[in-house]
Amino acid sequence: MTMDSVNMGPGAPGGWNARVRRVSSAGRAAVDSLRLRRALADLERFCFFVGYARSGSTLIGALLNAHPEVVVANELDVLRQVDLGLSRNRIFSLLLDRERQFAAMGYQWTGYDYTVPGQYQGRFERLRVIGDKRAGRSTHRLGENPELLDLVRSTVGMPIRVIHVVRNPFDNVATMARRGQRGLSPAIANYLQLSRTVDCIRTRLEPDELLDVRYESFTEHPEQHLLELCTFLGVHASADYLKSCASLVHPSTTRSRDTLLWSPAERFEIEAVIERRPVLAGYEFDA
């Protein structure tokens, strides 16, 4: 099924011709609604990301989105839609719309090409998992309103799966600083706030609801980690799917941390957060 097969149509106001158009539009809306219900009939899980900007979650989300039973939209900010009180089906329709938009952009994002050759971006066979990739913003929203997690559960009415991508915090912070945070100190403060929120979210999730993924390990062994991610989401990963996705992944040979000048105090702040967060164990500035 293509994304266009569940598109939603607009109405039209005024006059006799407009009345005819309204009847026609109502008919199209009914058909679109039926198509949407059919598309969503097999849904089993709802997925979203938490974590940090510039962590590698866009790549992972794009690869999952290439699976024949998964749609992971790029940057809808789905928790905002939940917080606004939108219905389950309206939220899922927006996720499908967002995926259509990403497809129209050729899966180009922040200078990178996320096209997976020969797979299911822009379409699906049987939709079993739907979700959104906007890790930093989702984390901020949950930090501002921890009860939003319960609202997500009640709105989607199905098991949730939360993906938390980490990378070396020194690289993560440096990339954040270079692309919008205007210096290391604001980027460090943002990273520390997000880290505290993720740790709080962890306490509110069941063990089978959260998966930690180390970006560096993912790029070294993409097929292994994609298989783990698909198992986490409850879908089968074919050898062809894993191979196609792995062809898009290359281990990073650059270290963002080396592009900026760190003060001893700034390095100490990151070393301290690594020390107290088990999920970051083993990361160092010089490793």
Explain what you see:
By secondary structure, the protein is an alpha/beta fold. The chain has two domains: 10-41; 43-280, P-loop containing nucleotide triphosphate hydrolases (Rossmann fold, 3-Layer(aba) Sandwich). It is 52% helix and 11% strand. The protein contains twelve helices and seven strands. The chain has helices at 16-40, 57-65, 78-83, 88-104, 135-144, 148-156, 169-181, 184-203, 215-220, 222-233, 239-246, 264-276; strands spanning 45-50, 70-74, 108-109, 112-113, 129-133, 160-166, 210-214. Strands 2-5-1-6-7 form a five-stranded parallel β-sheet. A hairpin with a 2-residue loop joins β3 and β4 (112-113).
Salient structural properties:
287 residues, alpha/beta, two-stranded antiparallel ribbon, 12 helices, 52% helix, 11% strand
User: In CATH terms, what is the fold-level topology of the largest domain?
Assistant: Rossmann fold
Reading the helices and strands in chain order gives HEHEHHEEEHHEHHEHHHH
DSSP summary: helix tally: 12
The low-confidence runs, each spanning 5 or more residues with pLDDT under 50, are 8-14
Mean pLDDT: 89
What is the CA-atom radius of gyration, in angstroms? Answer: 20 Å
Tally the beta strands: 7
Using the 3D structure, state the CATH architecture of the largest domain.
3-Layer(aba) Sandwich
Order of strands, widest sheet: 2-5-1-6-7
Q: What overall form do the CA principal axes indicate?
A: globular
Strand residues, percent: 5-15%
